[in-house]
């Protein structure tokens, strides 16, 4: 069942990708793959990348 809520996801280099599951249950409007940096603790390891992507998602959602 899809929630209908606009959802963003970011997948860092060492995360386990479950995109097909996310798309089945969420309305993915932004998906970002970071292939060369970060991991499970992205907020600690790559805070600038995470914050930039979050801001871009919010800007696109409210426009």
Structure in words:
The protein has helices spanning 19-25, 42-45, 47-62; strands spanning 6-11, 27-33. By secondary structure, it is α+β, with helices and mostly antiparallel strands. The protein has one domain (6-62). The protein has a two-stranded parallel ribbon with strand order 1-2. The termini are far apart. The model has no long low-confidence stretch (mean pLDDT 87).
- End-to-end separation in angstroms reads 27 Å
User: How large, in whole angstroms, is the Cα Rg?
Assistant: 12 Å
What structural category do the secondary elements indicate?
Answer: alpha+beta
Q: How many domains, in number, for the residues?
A: 1
Helix count from the secondary structure assignment? 3
Strand content: 15-25%
* Strands, total number: 2
Please state the overall shape, judged from the principal axes of the Cα atoms: flat
Low-pLDDT segments, ≥5 res? none
Largest sheet: 2 strands, parallel
Order of helices and strands: EHEHH
What is the helix fraction of residues, given as a range?
40-55%
Spatial order of the strands forming the largest sheet: 1-2
What do the pLDDT scores average to? 87
């Amino acid at each position: 069942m899809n929630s209908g809520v606009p959802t963003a996801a970011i997948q860092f280099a060492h995360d386990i990708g479950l995109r097909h599951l996310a798309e089945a249950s969420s309305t993915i409007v932004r998906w970002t793959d970071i292939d060369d940096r970060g991991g499970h603790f992205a907020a600690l390891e790559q805070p600038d990348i995470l914050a930039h992507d979050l801001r871009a998602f919010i800007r696109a959602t409210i426009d």
